[in-house]
Amino acid sequence: MQDKRTDEKLVEAAQKGDSAAFEVLVRRYQSRVVSIAFSVLRNSEDAADVAQEVFLRVYRKLGGFCGKSRFYTWLFRITVNMSIDRSRSRQRKRAESLDQEDQETGENRFARIPDSDLDPREAGADSELERKIHEAIDELSPKHRQVVLLRDVQGLSYQEIAQVVRCSLGTVMSRLHYAREKLKEKVRPLLPSEAEEGGEEP
Amino acid sequence: MRDCGQDSIQLMAYADGQLNGEEKRQVERHLELCADCRGEVAAVRALSNRVAAARGLPDGSQADIASAVMRRVREERPRGWGFWQTLGFTWGFRMPALARLGTVALTVLLVIAGTFFFQSSPTGDQTETPLVLRPVDIQVDTDLDADFSVFTTEQATIIWFEEEEEKDPSMI
Q1: Short-list B130, B106, B28, B99, CA closest to A66
Q2: Does the interface ipTM go beyond 0.85?
Q3: What residues of B are in contact with residue A44 (Cβ under 8 Å)?
């Protein structure tokens, strides 16, 4: 049966040492956390792994959570940051191994570091368009990438994104606009004509 | 700003369904007349759908990590329950904002005092180096899940306590 207590009540109980209350929070948000991590990392195993680390960190820091922001915005912030950290360290590892190979062969392939740790489904992107989209997203800076993913994949409102990334609404909008312009530059030639896709009114 | 005079960020917010009231009606009135902006709205939505499809969790992915998390939580629990809990959270009360601020202020004072202590030269044969923050010196702790940021420079560590931004109710 689903626990109807609010996040705030569950957090309060967990802060007093009620681990069952913490488990309810984990079950309530695990899909969202895995999904956010996956959107950054494009690898199910890494996403599940980071998600576990996120909840453990949240558990450790729960005492310091004062309820100034909503629990889920705090949780999502930790998730985004840890996922980006993981993605960086994965890239660094890849760069180091390339560097080692390059030293042996005398080549330099730092111009673009492909991410070789992706799931086969994602790595074998089913179209040129999808490959371009992945490439364009990965080339965005972390602060631009996170607003695009939180908006387009997670469907968060601008206000929620502002709370997650701790910046003003105006900053969210300008980052999102900039990021989308960058994505458009890369993928627009491959998109079907706009008339074909004409969206519905919100 | 677009060629037709329409604000492009406002148009994007409309495409994302983030406008309400008069602002939304204003964009809708403009869209009736401007085919270019109608195309832009469609393009923003198309791109957004593509990103969602490309980066969404694949169907049938296993997102059940709760059991694994709780196993690790139970293993971890007896080892101690964190710094804040030792300050009283296990008894069920939260530290008031003023006390938190006080703690941070005290830490900053201690850091500054420590910096002066280590920089002062009892023999007087060394010139005192002023604290100059150059961008190359500064390392910012990117761990944003704390309520404060830590800036580390060659000469000092500065802890910046951050208040949550006031929410403007007139915003979306």
Answers
A1: B99
A2: no
A3: 57-58, 61-62
